[in-house]
Amino acid sequence: MKKIEIYDTTLRDGAQSEDVSFSVEDKLRITGKLDELGLHYIEGGYPGSNPRDLEFFRKAAKLKLANAKLVSFGSTHRPKKKASKDETLKALLDANTSVITIFGKTWDFHVKEALKVPLRENLEIIHDSVAFLKKRTDKVFFDAEHFFDGYKRNQEYALQCLEAAHDAGAECLVLCDTNGGCTPSEIREIVRKVKKACSAPLGIHVHNDSDCAVANSIVSVEEGVTQVQGTINGLGERCGNANLISIIPNIQLKLGMKCLADKKLEKLREVSRFVNEIANLRHFKRQPYTGDSAFAHKAGMHVSAILKHSETYEHISPALVGNSQRILISDLAGRANILRKAEEFGIKLSNDSVQLIDIITQLKELESQGFQFEGAEASFELLMKKALGLHKRFFDLIGFRVIIEKRKEGDESLSEATIMVRVSGHVEHTAATGHGPVNALDNALRKALEKFYPVLREVKLLDYKVRVLTAGKGTTARVRVLVESGDKEGRWGTVGVSENIIEASYQALVDSVEYKMLKEEQLS
Q1: Interacting residues of 21 by C-beta distance below 8 A, sequence separation 6+
Q2: Residue pLDDT, tens place only, 47-102
Q3: 109: part of which helix (H) or strand (E)?
Q4: Domain 396-523, second-level architecture
Q5: By C-alpha distance, which of 239, 237, 276 is closest to 22?
């Protein structure tokens, strides 16, 4: 079976999406989830362009990835500058990844108008950059920027650029439709010709400006490309990049080629929703394969047929990609997903248990209120343990109060939280200040509990996100708060929902604290 390598650039290209901004902690968390999926390469960012990516690579070096190799990304060296003296190439090496991808100009128009150097000099820049990096790292991939536009205008020169990178030691030559304007027939014809003219392994990297990115990636694979680049959910600049959530099952289930290990495909929906939650984006219901509507049936004739045999109106079994069939007049989805999650959490739960029905009922009720548990796995684990009687109450809230004070125009607001809790019959009443009301409440809760549970000193609040759920209701809108916490062992997400942002935040903070204490109790 032919194997195709999947190269993810969500953390770099995907982060260039409008309305998306990943923190360092976001990127680390997504990296772990992509590694769980079994991708081959994860492009972490452009270390020569901003301090955030430098910090990411420094912290990512401590991650223990089981499947993927981390990749740093940058450009060829600058004109009039030697590769050994170029800051961009130095930053790529300082990122300390075993794989480096660099992009270079392959469209003569860009060489003349953007770089403003002779065509021959650009070939030397490509060769020298690849050769310099190849001597100092395990693998170098070359992204041939604007390759398809360049090939259509000057076929000979575009191929010379590929040859320069290959001669210098590039392991894979990635053909880029950077403007995203090519059609599948154009891509197929050009990849076929390049394959005949070039002996190096080829990759494909396309954008979605003409809504053809997935199709363009698939026809490239059919023509012999062995590496496919893209992003989770098609995130990316302008109209986005090729969507790996569609590409991966198309390659594996439709073309019969191998790109993920057995059973990893079942994590596809989970990963899709996880990335959207971290990016603070709404889930696209009609996303092929993983969307809520991908296997939802409403029309009476369809429902009648589907109940007899699912293949009548489903092109694959939804379970293959971690999704489930939904009949909209009587929603039957959820059981298999919950059983799978219980197994991941080490919770014994049978398909015919009363508790499973209770969990499904609770889940549906909470989701109707606005809760979402993708990106908040700790809250979902707590929900399951409460339903099964496996949860322990570590404290009871008696009450809290949050005060925000602004003493004069131009001064920063002051936030103070007071909280009273009962722990094993003892009442603790304390107060704390913070950078904003949520931070003050978090500090007060920790202060009240740490004398009883010292392990909470290890917990750090790493990220905090708010999403407005009921558009058009102004300041009375319901909000969902997603909190990411962590300790020296790992990270976890929790969620809260309310019309009151402080109440929603408190729910997520309490789940975070309880999850830590349950985890410690299991270890002891």
Answers
A1: 15
A2: 978 889 999 999 999 999 999 999 999 999 999 899 999 999 999 999 999 999 99
A3: helix 108-110
A4: 2-Layer Sandwich (3.30)
A5: 276
